[in-house]
Design goal:
The chain has 12 helices and no strands. The longest helix has 30 residues. It has a single domain, classed as Glycerol uptake facilitator protein.
Length: 280
């Protein structure tokens, strides 16, 4: 009597080693550079909305002004992690994380045209998704919670961001995307939902707690703060159209620099030379 053995596939839950993570980052960059623009834009809209959801959660928590500073920053940072959790686990295109496509470019696996096309489409998609999320959340009257304190928190956050000195804003944006890209890098190495969520928790909550500047998050925070401020919440003129554009533009540049620092550092350490490279 013969017994047939069941063919079992062994799943290894161990995280990828650093060199394998860098190789995965390059392959992800190739996929992103060749992605259909329409699908890329919609995926970017999802990411913009997801980050907006994190901002929504963050400001809802900040709607209690009686909390001590340290508690407010730490727990608020954890709340904001909702955004990148949805991006990494549900699948979406986030501009700040896509700066890591530089790994694929540095190895000659994609062209500048593919990289910049992705960045532009994703940035615009993130903006569209953020604005859509903002509109839906505004219409839900979330800002009216706790007697309007949540709306005041939105305006306070936005007013603080548009008032930043340009040098401080730029370096806050660099630090922000250093932490965001490290969180995404951990996401590349992880093989399970638990890996990804636990891995991003500390870098993302740290950047929020420290008040660093994320251009996509600000695509949600600043328009929401502007609309509420124009509607009479907070001091008149605390948030302006010019201030919104100023912050998002400079935060975008700083985020690019921060992402390049992470991507190029790990590419230099761990990449393997390829025989064939694309022409520049």
């Amino acid at each position: 009597m013969s017994i047939e053995k069941e063919d079992l596939t062994v799943v290894c839950p161990d995280a990828l080693a650093p060199a394998a993570t860098e190789a995965k980052a390059e392959n992800v960059g190739i996929t992103k550079a060749t992605m259909n623009p329409a699908k890329c834009f919609v995926a970017a809209m999802l990411a913009g909305a997801f980050i907006g959801f994190g901002g929504m959660y963050f400001c809802t928590f900040l709607g209690d002004p009686t909390m001590p500073f340290a508690v407010q920053r730490m727990v608020g940072g954890i709340c904001f992690c909702l955004g990148l959790t949805l991006v990494l686990c549900c699948g979406a295109e986030l501009f700040t994380g896509n700066v890591l496509m530089i790994c694929a470019k540095a190895s000659g696996k994609i062209k500048w045209s593919g990289l910049f096309r992705n960045w532009v489409v994703v940035w615009l998609g993130n903006l569209a998704g953020s604005l859509l999320a903002m509109f839906i959340i505004y219409m839900s009257n979330l800002q009216g919670m706790n007697g309007g304190a949540v709306g005041e928190a939105f305006v306070s956050v936005a007013a603080g961001k548009v008032a930043l000195d340009p040098i401080i804003l730029f370096f806050k944006a660099i630090m922000c995307n250093v932490l965001v890209c490290l969180a995404v890098w951990i996401g590349f190495s992880g093989k399970t939902i638990v890996d990804k969520v636990i891995g991003l928790l500390f870098p993302i909550s740290a950047f929020v707690a420290c008040g660093f500047e994320h251009c996509v998050a600000n695509m949600f925070f600043l328009p929401m703060g502007l609309v509420l401020n124009l509607g009479g919440v907070g001091a008149a003129g605390a948030v302006t159209f010019g201030g919104v554009a100023y912050n998002i533009a400079l935060a975008t540049l700083g985020n690019i620099v921060g992402g390049l620092l992470v991507g190029l550092a790990y590419w230099f350490i761990y990449h393997k030379k390829q025989q064939k490279k694309l022409e520049k």
